[in-house]
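Minutes, project check-in

Agenda point 3 was the complex the collaborators sent over. CS summarized: six entities, 848 residues total, and the question is how they sit relative to each other. Sequences were read into the notes so everyone works from the same version.
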Amino acid sequence: MRIDGAAGDERRVEPARAAIVRAATELFLAHGFQATGTDRIAAAAAVSKQTVYNQFGDKRSLFAAVVLGVTATAEAYGAELTATLGAVERREDVGPALRRLAHRWASAVLGPNVLAVRRLVVAEAARFPELAAEYHRRAPGATLRTVADGLARLAGRGLVEVDDPERTASDLAFLLFGAELDRALFHPDAPGPDERRIDELVDHALRVVGLG
Amino acid sequence: MRIDGAAGDERRVEPARAAIVRAATELFLAHGFQATGTDRIAAAAAVSKQTVYNQFGDKRSLFAAVVLGVTATAEAYGAELTATLGAVERREDVGPALRRLAHRWASAVLGPNVLAVRRLVVAEAARFPELAAEYHRRAPGATLRTVADGLARLAGRGLVEVDDPERTASDLAFLLFGAELDRALFHPDAPGPDERRIDELVDHALRVVGLG
Amino acid sequence: MRIDGAAGDERRVEPARAAIVRAATELFLAHGFQATGTDRIAAAAAVSKQTVYNQFGDKRSLFAAVVLGVTATAEAYGAELTATLGAVERREDVGPALRRLAHRWASAVLGPNVLAVRRLVVAEAARFPELAAEYHRRAPGATLRTVADGLARLAGRGLVEVDDPERTASDLAFLLFGAELDRALFHPDAPGPDERRIDELVDHALRVVGLG
Amino acid sequence: MRIDGAAGDERRVEPARAAIVRAATELFLAHGFQATGTDRIAAAAAVSKQTVYNQFGDKRSLFAAVVLGVTATAEAYGAELTATLGAVERREDVGPALRRLAHRWASAVLGPNVLAVRRLVVAEAARFPELAAEYHRRAPGATLRTVADGLARLAGRGLVEVDDPERTASDLAFLLFGAELDRALFHPDAPGPDERRIDELVDHALRVVGLG
DNA sequence: AATGAATGAGTATTCATTCAT
DNA sequence: TATGAATGAATACTCATTCAT
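CS then shared the predicted structure for the full assembly.
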């Protein structure tokens, strides 16, 4: 039996490839693709520049690895988001569950990490069109589909009335965080909404969309 | 870098300065800020590089002039947008007028020009935070306020029921084009929605927001 | 009337482009194409690296300019080579004239300058196939054709018996300097043949080819 | 850098060393010395880069091994070339035997392999002067001497009249393939002469040199 | 003897900006 | 005000060679 101290050993021998992705993710998110030199990535990963090129071939491929790596966490998160809906049994539990879901959703999308990734990918969309499309499909798209599925299941069990779950999910999304998201894209330094503001957004959006 | 936009001397027709702004606008929108060299701007404006620097000081100020120049047309457009609401006299005219307004609004926001500007400004928001904020205030913000004012006037005349015009305008906006706008940011080459799709978006958004 | 001190002024204001070609020619001939960095070329021309790129676009184009520039002098030289044949009037003048021509020819081809150019172009023939072919056509090819023409004119005037002037010129050439040329390509540092050796080569070649 | 060529240990079959030389020969001939990286050599030999360095010390020594390895086959070939002359008994057999010899000689020298080696060695002559000289001595030089010896033996037996066998061999060589060889150096992609052309070259060269 | 990574200098090329004419 | 060149730092990427495992 191995206790497997992987977590503990990561300080010592983090595999080069992972270290590069981590460093590049941080730097790309902080300064953008173009403004981040390969020298600095290598230095931040405590790795030689040559190793970067051995592992990724060129800077573009490294960028793709970074962006797709980020989507992996987004995908995992999406499923967790709607798990709360599964436990709903009675009509009066629906409201609180939806409020929790909406709150988490807005918090995540308007959190600094997701905003930074969106800015990064949008900024490079012209130079990486396929990557941008793939990101959109995998991250916000997947979450939207997951929420729509959750609504459809609730509707199937008669706990909620939703004609078009995809559209309702989309309406909910953009009523929730559309304005804030748009604002945030243009205000990279401004802090996101606080908890009270999110609560207020949640109540309003659910009401408008007919789920409140 | 100066963000003062249109200065007082512009009444004297200065072809050089205008030509530079026009050429730079085109190139920045097409290829982005970083990928557009000053050489090419000067060449496209049929002007010497020195003239570019005499007129604008540096590339950043030229960028600011370009972005703020674009907002001028956006501001002019905003007022025109809600003019149709002013002519409304009877309750049964409200629906068609709102539909026309929403259609124009969505068409403009989802048109290639506005999308290109948004991508450009978002891409450079980290390097030009004040400019990005200013753009957001002047272009989408101004339009939103204008629409809110229009709704408020209608409500004041009893033609429509709107509690919070600002919020209603915002909800309408993001129900209308939130999803499409988000999609477009990540798909720089994809064509925008066609007329039928916009009609459908308009009907849906107005209904959800209680104005349809 | 202008005395035109072009020659005297060349120290002061040699046009950038010419200076670059001169420096690049010298360096390419001395160290080869790949081993000569653009930095050094710019430094040797007392010119900024940017000027090199403004003038020639890239290193390959500069190389082409160098090689073709060299052929210009080769072409001019070819005509001068056979001028001596034009003055021949009597049968007994033919021998000395041909000997002079052959001597000059061998001296030129086996001189350090021509050898260096040949090595340079051959070394890069794989990377610049069209340029190498063009060089061969313009420099040794042109000289060969000029000599053949000279022989044909002599034959036309009955001063010499030559059936196939092209072939005779070619035979003469490679009997004259074929072996030495081959040797020199593989001995970049060895001195060329001295005058006596060239005289001997000339006598032998003319005899074998039937013109001695 | 060592220029000692085949060392004593080669009787023990060392697949690694041989594989490296073979791969390097192929790559150097195809792309030149500078354009061939050690990574690719190691990969093509299915060997680690470290093994390359263990076996050869550095890239220059590997290059020397490659070039001298090639000369080994050239030397073996030279003797075979003149074997046909040994069988000549009568005066009327001399002509056909010389024609066969000349044909084989020209075919070999103008074949793609020999041309590629010549280009390679000439291209690097400035950086490897001793190696280039050694190659010239061992490959074309040895063949020339062998042919001269063959002519001398024929002359000694009264089958042919040759005053200076070395010079006659040299004249024959450059009348045969001097022009084609020169052309080929500058036309790396052009195909060599076909059989008929070689026959024609042989007849002409033997006639001019007085052996036809 | 092999592997993956490190090293560190080097490559061509581009950029925004400024100077002299 | 226009032109051509200068500046000087920065870019991504490659190379031969060596070290540790």
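Noted in discussion: Residues 4-13 of chain D have pLDDT under 50 and may be disordered.
Follow-up: revisit at the next meeting once the mutant set is ready.
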